[in-house]
Design goal:
- The structure holds two protein chains of two kinds.
- By secondary structure, chain A is α+β, with helices and mostly antiparallel strands.
- Chain A has one domain: Jelly Rolls.
- Chain A is 33% helix and 26% strand.
- Chain A is built from four helices and eight strands, in the order H-H-E-E-E-E-E-E-E-E-H-H.
- In chain A, the strands form two sheets. A four-stranded antiparallel β-sheet of chain A has the order 1-8-3-6. Chain A has a four-stranded antiparallel β-sheet with strand order 2-7-4-5, with no helix packed on it.
- Chain A is globular and about 55 Å long.
- By secondary structure, chain B is α/β, with parallel strands linked by helices.
- Chain B folds into two domains: 102 residues, Elongation Factor Tu (Ef-tu), domain 3, CATH 2.40.30; 161 residues, Nucleotide-binding domain of ferredoxin-NADP reductase (FNR) module (Rossmann fold, 3-Layer(aba) Sandwich).
- In chain B, a hairpin with a 4-residue loop joins strand 1 and strand 2.
- Helices cover 20% and strands 29% of the residues of chain B.
- Chain B is globular.
- In chain B, the strands form three sheets. Chain B has a seven-stranded mixed β-sheet with strand order 10-9-8-7-11-12-15, with helices on both faces.
- Classes of the chains: A alpha+beta, B alpha/beta.
- At the A-B interface, strand 5 and helix 4 of A face strand 10 and helix 5 of B.
């Protein structure tokens, strides 16, 4: 049977992380499942965790008044969902909607923040990985904003 | 001199083809099948080449060939209606005449891809010039490794060749992923730019060739990300576009740095294009 520590170590987000750290992370981790159609979190709610997606697909959505929700992005297997747990005010900025049944590892943000404050090496490892994800998503968002396939460009 | 002889010797002389079929792909994009006047075969082209299409009385347009290279009795073009000439072209009806010059330009280096994985990355109507590559690989499956097609469109209603994309994805050793920049709530596929699909592509960059076609800015993002994923610059090919007129490197309309896109391209390796892609207003 796969242990939580093994699953965390095998996830691409934590690729190459020393086993000492994966052991520390495992103390904050749990297996979770979200059925298709359910919301994993909603904008404005307290952000207490992040997720390593193992299977399934999640849509990030934003609401605008008098409109249907706008789907900004989808995330799937091997990706990370959520970084609002890392920075104050620890509130979700979007809705996360399971468009397919999602199996994931949830990492408790409060637990992890405490461990990162106690162990800055762990904190730096986590921050580097999230910074990389943020950079990729910022670039993708800029690319998306260019609307390159629009007629008349 | 007969017309056929003149056509083979004079690349500036259009051959009158007739429209056999018009398929509406999306609200503004159509696929036209043209056949030569005598119905004969012999239309050889390399995937990635283009023709100059005359709409008599309106104008001439460079359009990439989007059909199957094995079907030599016809030429197929997918055209997006964005102006007067393209509107006139997609408004042709079965039996109407269209003048054809070409095929012109270099093709995708499919022979070089033999024995390797093939990554096709297309954005918007950029899938059209890459469709012949997909046909070529699927017809000669034993010659190639994995085929991965990553396709990005603006929205679900802009996705081209929907049925074919689904059919290709069911072929062995073939992976097809489609994403849209703006997804409606009924869309169950990926949402995000085409580069966000790279992480799902199952291939080995060190033994792969990548062929990309789409808006130039998209190809810049794509090429840069492919490098990050381990592709060597010389293994990335781009299809460039400029205002082509003569198609044979005489007129200079399509000059791009030291290159004529119509004659030296439109397909170029990224390592040759990279310095030019970074120049302002070129």
């Amino acid at each position: 049977m796969e242990t939580l520590e093994h699953i965390i170590a095998e996830h691409s987000f934590f690729a190459g992380l020393e086993s000492y750290y994966t052991n520390l992370l495992t103390g904050c981790a749990s297996n979770v499942r979200f059925d298709a159609g359910t919301y994993i979190f909603k904008e404005g709610e307290e952000a207490n965790e992040f997720y390593l997606i193992r299977t399934g697909k999640v849509a990030l959505e934003i609401f605008a008044p008098q409109r249907k929700p706008i789907m900004l992005e989808t995330l799937g297997e091997g990706e990370v969902l959520g970084w609002s747990w890392l920075l104050p005010p620890y509130q979700w900025r979007f809705h996360a909607h399971a468009v397919e049944t999602v199996r994931a590892i949830a990492l408790d943000g409060k637990c992890l923040r405490t461990k990162c404050e106690e162990n800055h090496d762990l904190g730096y490892e986590i921050l580097k990985r999230f910074a990389h994800i943020m950079e990729q998503r910022l670039e993708a968002t800029r690319f998306q904003l260019l609307d390159v396939y629009r007629v008349g460009r | 001199m007969t017309m056929a002889t003149a056509a083979t010797t004079d690349p500036m002389l259009p051959q009158p083809y007739s429209v056999r079929q018009v398929i509406k792909e999306t609200a503004d994009t159509f696929t036209l099948t043209l056949e030569p006047p005598n119905g004969a075969g012999g239309n050889r082209f390399q995937p990635g080449q283009f023709s100059m299409l005359w709409v008599f009385g309106v104008g001439e347009l460079p359009i990439s060939i989007s059909g199957d290279p094995a079907e030599r009795d016809r030429l197929v073009y997918t055209v997006r209606s964005v102006g007067q000439a393209t509107l006139a072209l997609v408004s042709r009806e079965v039996g109407d005449a269209v003048g054809v010059r070409g095929p012109f330009g270099t093709g995708w280096p499919v022979a070089e891809a033999e024995g390797r994985d093939v990554l096709v990355i297309a954005g918007g109507i950029g899938l059209a010039p890459l469709r012949p590559v997909i046909y070529e690989v699927l017809h000669n499956r034993e010659k190639y490794g994995r085929l991965v097609v990553l396709y990005g469109a603006r929205s679900p209603r802009d996705v081209l060749y929907r049925k074919e994309l689904a059919a290709w994805g069911r072929q062995r050793e073939t992976q097809v992923l489609v994403t849209v920049d703006y997804g409606g709530l009924s869309w169950r596929g990926h949402v995000g730019v085409v580069t966000t699909l790279f992480k799902y592509a199952r291939l080995q960059p060190a033994r792969s060739l990548a062929f990309a076609c789409g808006p130039e800015i998209m190809m810049r993002f794509v090429a840069r990300d492919l490098e990050t994923h381990g592709f060597a610059r010389e293994n990335i090919y781009l299809s460039m576009e400029r205002n082509m007129k003569c198609g044979i490197g005489f007129c200079g309309h399509c000059q791009y740095g030291p290159h004529f896109i119509c004659k030296d391209g439109p397909i170029f390796p990224y390592d040759r294009m990279r310095p030019l892609l970074e120049k302002y207003e070129l």
